[in-house]
From TrEMBL:
PANTHER family: MEMBRANE-BOUND LYTIC MUREIN TRANSGLYCOSYLASE C, SOLUBLE LYTIC MUREIN TRANSGLYCOSYLASE-RELATED
Signal sequence region: 1-24
InterPro entries registered for this protein in UniProt: Lysozyme-like_dom_sf (IPR023346), Transglycosylase_SLT_dom_1 (IPR008258)
Protein name (database record): Murein transglycosylase
CDD domains hit by this protein: MltD-like (cd16894)
Keyword check for Signal: yes
Alphabetized Pfam families for the sequence: SLT
Family designation: Belongs to the transglycosylase Slt family.
Keyword Transmembrane helix in annotation: no
Segments forming domain Transglycosylase SLT: 101-202
Amino acid sequence: MMKWGKNILAFIGLSSMMMLFVYAMQDAPTDENFEKKIINDYNVYALQIPDHLNFAGEDIPLDDPDIYERMDRELLVNTYWQSNGLLMFKRAYKYFPVIEPILKKHGVPDDFKYLAVIESGLVNAVSPAGARGVWQIMPATGKEYGLEINDNVDERYNLEKSTEVACEYLKKSKEQLGSWTLAAAAYNAGNYGVSKRLSEQDVTDYYDLLLGEETGRYLFRIVALKEIMSNPDRYGFNFREKDLYTEIPTYKVEVDTAVTNFASFAKGFDINYKILKIHNPWLREPKLDNKSRKQYFIEIPKEGYYKTKS
C-alpha cells in the first residue's frame, strides 16, 4: 500500500506539473496577466521537437538520430537564451518589414530572413574577419556585387542595399549547388568550400556532410530561430506588441554633391548628427567626399518622432 500510495502521489504531482506547463505555454500574454506571468516560478523543460521541420520548403530528415540531436541542441540553446531571444523578437518587428519584400522580389524564400538573425542578431555587427552589417558581407563580396565600400561610405551598413546583395549571392549559390539548404550553408562556408566538401565526401546533401563546428550548426541554428520566432507561445516567450521595436518612418533626401559637415546638414532637418547616423549608418565619416558627384539618398526621419534641443 505504501508503494501504491507513493505512485498515486507521484502521478498527481506529474499531472499537476503537466497542467502548469500547458497553461504557461498556451496562455497568451495580455496586459491583464502579463505581470502575473513575470513573477511565476522559472522552470526548465525538455522540448518536444515538431514532427516536421523544413527550411525553404526542403524537409529536415529528423528520423536520422544525428540530425535529431543537432536540431534538439539548437532549439534548446536558443529557447533558453531568453534575453537574446526577446531581443530577436523585438528587432525582427522593426527590420523584417524591410527585408521581407526584398527577398520576395528576388524569389528568395522568406526563411532566409532568419539567416540574417543568426549572422548578426539584426544589428550592424563587425566580425574579426572583416564582415560588416546585418548580412555580414565581406569587402570583396560587397564590391563584386556593386556596393561602395571605403572609409567614407560603406554600403554594407545600408540594410536595403545589403539585402539586395545577399539575395543575389544566395541565388547564385542555389544555381551552383542545387538546393536552398546548400545555398544557406555556402553563405557561411563559401560556394567553393561547400562544393569541395560535397565532392570529397561523395554526397549531394547538406545533412550527409561531415562539417566543422560552425558550418555544421549553421542550418540548424537558422531553423531553430525560424521555429521559435514563428511560435513564441510554444517556447515560452511572453511579450505584447507594444514591447517590440518599431521602425521610424523616414523620407529620402537626394544628395549629389559633397557634404562638408553632417552635423550642420542634420540641423537643417531639425535633427542632430546622432539621429542622422542612426538612420544612415553607411555614412562612415562626419562628411561626404563625393568627388564623382554620385547620387546618394539620405534617410531623414519624419517630423515628430524625435525631440532634439535646438
